């Protein structure tokens, strides 16, 4: 690592007006033991999030975005996962605190919402029992007070008649309602950091927009730092401040959302954007896709990990490991050709029609369908 | 991005059209099927390797079980030829001896050579187990296939199977032996009655899955006869679960035959079977424990070998049970 | 929930009908005339005739069946000549030791199986787990009567810690009762323990993979509470089903183990009846055990419904 670039975005670290830094992750590497041998699921990840800010982590299935999130909270099986690097939160390195200390952070100062609300709630306990359990772990109070607190939290997430819903079991609620319960549970102890791992993927399209808006509203109301993991660039365009694009366990590009969407540098980011339908996409034509398939973590290429699928790749790419390099303030890319401006030259201006970036309008359109 | 879409190899997930998963017309199901992408770190793409790995490990079970079974079959086949004494040969003066150069495993209360009796008994026990496994599998296969194919047959046959399966196996076997009379062939009949419904159930449920496949529909549309579809097209696809079931029935029959003979309701004396050697040994257990230990060890080893084989076969044929094998041994 | 219970009960009816027909047919399956088989070769033709008419064998089969079924439904399972008593009362006399043995075996099985299964699941893939799997495979490969013989040889014979055989009722004190029953219960319970432990292990492993376990971790729930509160409660439903099914197997298996340890229960009754070819008693025992097995499973199903909110509230 020559430069430890942090995608700083709009607010610089030295600005006295800047909101408080909530989490700083540096050099995060997670190795997992599997039957076929050890793999490095994510490698050398750096990012930070400030209070009230939303960082998007984008990539395809298996690119390591969920492992990144779960590593921050140390949710992976201790027997098979091995973390290195630092996760600085509240002035403490979370990767080096004891498990019992870590438990106090989980659900208290840092919360997580998962993809599938069907399986994320325990089917044999009521909504109330699950909410109250969370409260009582982190805040000593009477059961009655905790119950009232739980009802208030449900109300905050827009659930009608929370007094009745609190006695329901998860299977009695719709998918959207369950995700609201998950959100209520995540926010009930007013965490400083919320990690949402594909929170809308399992929901139907109309509910997706509602849930996304709910998370965004609550984030604003509580001035929470938020990490939003998604494969949906539309979602990123709509709610994120900054974005980190991941490919095969590495960050390939990071920076402010508008910069990345309007002026993608890494060929992978370009590919992603091109394959995303925009408002002006000709829907009679098939969308372009990135050729080839993602290699597995068991045979990570020696050079650039994206080289095999990259239309711009040359021998140097396949031979040399790429470094994440800062190209502007808060903007970095892991591609030497992009750093040298060669890609723009080969592909033409990034915005000449072919890669229409998705916009908030497009998302809204998707949401209403 | 200049390459046209049609050059993309067909692979469901890693195609780049990420947003299409959810924002397109695919609806709610599109995204949820790609459950928890990151947490398995692309393991799903390793299914071929996993399969190979699993085959090796299950071969471990199959190998161990197979070797045990082969040794026992060899001993059963050739052992009695090598032993000079017959299983019924009485030497009253040598009764209840421990192991010696003369009698390798000692003698029973009539002075009969225990080694010879256990080896000859093995023939009876293995014969019963094998015969029951074959008969119940064949009959169960027929019942299961017809039940799966014809709704009317299903209603009748499966109710009958449920009725038979409601009896605890050993109890039904005892009752049947009581009315049929203690005789080796009756043991085979009784145990076949007891175990056939279990095969029928397994075959039926697997055959129902096969029946839903389009090729069966196509054959029916072409006017192929029911029997042709059932036996030439569907039946071969149900072989593996039936074989696994047959293996377990083999083991269970050996146990049940031994229990029946031990209760005096199985293979009648003086012919040896593992169960009735144990029955003879029961009253003399403290005088001559060998009469209990030797046939007992023979039963345990045989059943263990067959169960290992069955477990191995199940792991090999059924990828779902292998789901438990995910993250290997921890490194820490 | 009510419709769930009604459905379960209705599903039992055809099974009960088949069971009744099979049990009734038992007597008629015997090669030759049941009455003369029962009385043995020395009986006079008058005696055979008398038994025939007493058993109703001279009437048409259908009439016999319904007469028998009507009796069975009202608790009349016929009369045993050998015992000189009604089959029902003979059964009742022998029921106590068998129930005691089966219950103790179930308790032994659960005490061993559930902790072992949980530990194996938590230590998945380690030597502990492999040892557990090997031991449980051994457990399902050793027939109970054989284990009984071995236990008797070791603990009663060589070590002399426990009585060799026999039975002392509860009226002689719990300690004595258990001393006589512990070896048979271990012998009978071992296979059940192995089966239940394997089930516990695999359902715990399923539960560990569930999303809500990750949620619990992310909420800050302690490891102990995660495993025993969130995990075990979910895993308990499939375990409960196995336990329900095992009770019938245990009662039937008691028949064989009782013979090993000379316990005067249902098992010894049936073995003696087989020797005597006392078909009336055999019929009665088989019917009673099978029907109570089915009823226990029905109860477990209903209990399951009460415990699992997904069933209760659907």
From TrEMBL, chain A:
Q: Which SUPFAM superfamilies match?
A: P-loop containing nucleoside triphosphate hydrolases
Q: Does the keyword field hold Cell wall biogenesis/degradation?
A: no
Q: Which UniProt keywords apply?
A: ATP-binding, Cell membrane, Membrane, Nucleotide-binding, Transport
User: Which residues lie within the region annotated Disordered?
Assistant: 346-369
Q: Where in the cell is it found?
A: Cell membrane
Gene3D superfamilies noted in UniProt: P-loop containing nucleotide triphosphate hydrolases
Concerning SMART domains, the annotation shows: AAA
Question: Composition bias, kind Basic and acidic residues: at what positions?
Answer: 360-369
Please report the record's description of how this protein sits within the membrane. Answer: Peripheral membrane protein
Q: Where is the ABC transporter domain?
A: 23-273
Task: Name where it mostly resides.
Answer: membrane
Give the range the annotation lists for the signal sequence. none
Q: Which InterPro entries match?
A: AAA+_ATPase, ABC_Ni/Peptide_Import, ABC_transporter-like_ATP-bd, ABC_transporter-like_CS, Oligopep_ABC_C, P-loop_NTPase
Q: Could you give a GO molecular-function term held by this entry?
A: ATP binding
Organism's domain of life? Bacteria
**Which intervals of the chain form a coiled coil?**
none
Which PANTHER family does its entry note? DIPEPTIDE TRANSPORT ATP-BINDING PROTEIN DPPD, OLIGOPEPTIDE TRANSPORT ATP-BINDING PROTEIN APPD
**Family assignment from sequence similarity:** Belongs to the ABC transporter superfamily.
NCBIfam families for the chain:
oligo_HPY
Protein known as: ABC transporter ATP-binding protein
Q: Which organism is it from?
A: Brevibacterium gallinarum
Which lineage do the record's taxonomy fields give for this organism? Answer: Bacteria, Bacillati, Actinomycetota, Actinomycetes, Micrococcales
TrEMBL record, chain C:
- What InterPro entries does the annotation carry? BPD_transp_1_N (IPR045621), MetI-like (IPR000515), MetI-like_sf (IPR035906)
The cellular location(s) given in this protein's UniProt record come to: Cell membrane
Question: Chief localization class?
Answer: membrane
Annotated TM spans: 9-29, 99-120, 132-158, 178-195, 235-261, 281-307
List each copy of the ABC transmembrane type-1 domain by range: 95-304
KW Membrane (keyword) present: yes
Question: Pfam families attached here?
Answer: BPD_transp_1 (PF00528), BPD_transp_1_N (PF19300)
Sorted alphabetically, the keyword list is:
Cell membrane, Membrane, Transmembrane, Transmembrane helix, Transport
* Superkingdom as given in the UniProt entry: Bacteria
Task: List, alphabetically, the PROSITE patterns matched.
Answer: ABC_TM1
Instruction: Tell me how this protein sits in the membrane.
Output: Multi-pass membrane protein
Instruction: Spell out the PANTHER family in the cross-references.
Output: DIPEPTIDE TRANSPORT SYSTEM PERMEASE PROTEIN DPPB-RELATED
Its family remark reads: Belongs to the binding-protein-dependent transport system permease family.
List the protein's name: ABC transporter permease
């Amino acid at each position: 690592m020559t430069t430890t670039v942090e995608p700083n975005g709009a607010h610089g670290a030295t600005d006295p007006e800047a909101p408080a830094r909530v989490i700083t992750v540096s050099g995060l590497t997670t190795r997992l033991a599997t039957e076929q041998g050890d793999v490095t699921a994510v490698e050398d990840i750096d990012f930070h999030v400030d209070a009230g800010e939303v960082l998007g982590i984008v990539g395809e299935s298996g690119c390591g975005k969920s492992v990144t999130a779960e590593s921050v909270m140390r949710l992976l099986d201790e027997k098979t996962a091995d973390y290195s690097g630092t996760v600085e939160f509240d002035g403490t390195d979370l990767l080096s605190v004891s498990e019992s200390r870590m438990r106090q952070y989980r659900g208290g100062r840092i919360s997580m919402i998962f993809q599938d609300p069907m399986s994320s709630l325990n089917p044999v306990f009521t909504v109330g029992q699950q909410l109250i359990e969370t409260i009582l772990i982190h805040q000593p109070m009477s059961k009655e007070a905790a119950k009232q607190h739980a009802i208030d939290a449900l109300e905050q997430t827009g659930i009608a008649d929370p007094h009745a819903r609190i006695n329901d079991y998860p299977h009695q609620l719709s998918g959207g309602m369950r995700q609201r319960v998950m959100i209520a549970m995540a926010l009930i102890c007013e965490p400083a950091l919320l990690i949402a791992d594909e929170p809308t993927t399992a929901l139907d399209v109309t509910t997706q927009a509602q849930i996304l808006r709910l998370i965004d509203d609550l984030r604003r109301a509580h001035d929470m730092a938020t990490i939003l993991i998604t494969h949906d660039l539309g979602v990123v365009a709509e709610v994120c401040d900054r974005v980190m694009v991941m490919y095969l366990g590495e960050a390939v590009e990071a920076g402010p959302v508008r910069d990345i969407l309007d002026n993608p540098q890494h060929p992978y980011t370009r590919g992603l954007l091109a394959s995303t339908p925009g408002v002006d996409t000709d829907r009679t034509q098939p969308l372009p896709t990135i050729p080839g398939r993602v290699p597995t973590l068991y045979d990570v290429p020696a050079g650039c990990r994206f080289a095999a699928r990259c239309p711009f790749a040359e021998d140097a790419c396949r031979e040399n490991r790429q470094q994440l390099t800062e190209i502007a303030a808060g903007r970095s890319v892991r591609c030497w050709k992009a750093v040298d401006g060669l890609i723009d030259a080969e592909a033409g201006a990034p915005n000449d029609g072919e890669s229409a970036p998705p916009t908030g309008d497009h998302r809204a359109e998707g949401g209403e369908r | 991005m200049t390459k046209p879409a049609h050059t993309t190899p067909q692979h469901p997930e890693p195609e780049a059209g990420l947003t299409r998963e959810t924002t397109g017309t695919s609806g709610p199901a599109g995204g949820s099927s790609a459950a928890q992408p990151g947490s398995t770190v692309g393991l799903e793409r390793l299914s071929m390797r996993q399969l190979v790995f699993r085959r090796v490990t299950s071969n471990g079970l199959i190998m161990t079980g197979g070797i045990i079974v082969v040794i026992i079959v060899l001993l059963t086949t050739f052992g009695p030829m090598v032993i000079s004494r017959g299983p019924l040969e009485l030497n009253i003066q040598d009764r209840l001896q421990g192991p010696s150069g003369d009698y390798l495993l000692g003698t029973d209360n009539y002075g009969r050579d225990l080694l010879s009796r256990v080896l000859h008994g093995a023939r009876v026990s293995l014969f019963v187990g094998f015969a029951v496994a074959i008969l119940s599998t064949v009959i169960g296969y027929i019942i299961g296939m017809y039940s799966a194919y014809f709704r009317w047959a299903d209603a009748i046959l499966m109710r009958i199977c449920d009725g038979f399966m409601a009896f605890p196996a050993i109890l039904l076997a005892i009752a049947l032996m009581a009315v049929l009379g203690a005789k080796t062939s009756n043991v085979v009949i009784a145990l076949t009655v007891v175990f056939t419904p279990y095969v029928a159930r397994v075959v039926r449920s697997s055959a129902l899955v096969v029946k839903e496949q389009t090729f069966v529909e196509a054959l029916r549309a072409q006017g192929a006869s029911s029997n042709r579809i059932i036996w030439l097209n569907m039946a071969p696809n149900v072989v593996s679960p039936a074989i696994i079931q047959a293996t377990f029935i083999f083991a269970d029959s050996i146990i049940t035959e031994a229990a029946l003979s031990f209760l005096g309701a199985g293979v009648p004396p003086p012919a040896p079977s593992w169960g009735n050697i144990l029955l003879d040994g029961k009253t003399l257990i403290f005088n001559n424990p060998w009469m209990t230990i030797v046939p007992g060890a023979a039963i345990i080893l045989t059943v263990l070998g067959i169960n290992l084989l069955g477990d191995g076969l199940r792991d090999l044929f059924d990828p779902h049970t292998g789901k438990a094998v995910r993250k290997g041994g921890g490194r820490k | 929930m009510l419709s769930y219970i009604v459905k379960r009960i209705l599903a039992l009816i055809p099974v009960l009908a088949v069971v009744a027909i099979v049990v009734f047919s038992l007597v008629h399956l015997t090669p030759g005339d049941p009455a003369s088989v029962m009385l043995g070769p020395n009986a006079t033709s008058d005696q055979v005739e008398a038994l025939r008419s007493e058993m109703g064998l001279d009437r048409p089969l259908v009439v016999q069946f319904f007469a028998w079924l009507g009796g069975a439904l009202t608790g009349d399972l016929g009369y045993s000549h050998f015992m000189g008593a009604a089959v029902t009362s003979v059964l009742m006399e022998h029921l106590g030791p068998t129930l005691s043995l089966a219950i103790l075996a179930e308790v032994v099985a659960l005490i061993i199986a559930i902790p072992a299964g949980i530990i194996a699941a938590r230590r998945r893939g380690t030597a502990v787990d492999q040892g557990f799997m090997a031991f449980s495979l051994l457990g399902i490969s050793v027939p109970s009567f054989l284990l009984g013989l071995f236990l008797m040889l070791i603990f009663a014979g060589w070590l002399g810690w426990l009585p060799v055989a026999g039975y002392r009722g509860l009226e002689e004190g719990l300690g004595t009762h258990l001393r006589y029953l512990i070896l048979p219960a271990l012998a009978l319970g071992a296979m059940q323990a192995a089966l239940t432990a394997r089930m516990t292990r695999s359902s715990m492993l399923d539960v560990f993979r569930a999303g809500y376990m990750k949620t619990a971790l992310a909420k800050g729930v302690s490891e102990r509470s995660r495993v025993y509160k969130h995990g075990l409660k979910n895993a308990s439903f499939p375990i409960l089903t196995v336990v329900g099914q095992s009770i019938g197997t245990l009662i039937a298996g008691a028949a064989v183990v009782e013979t090993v340890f000379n316990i005067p229960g249902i098992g010894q009754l049936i073995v003696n009846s087989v020797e005597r070819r006392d078909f009336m008693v055999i019929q009665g025992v088989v019917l009673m055990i099978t029907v109570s097995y089915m009823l226990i499973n029905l109860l477990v199903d209903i209990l399951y419904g009460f415990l699992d909110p997904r069933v209760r509230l659907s």
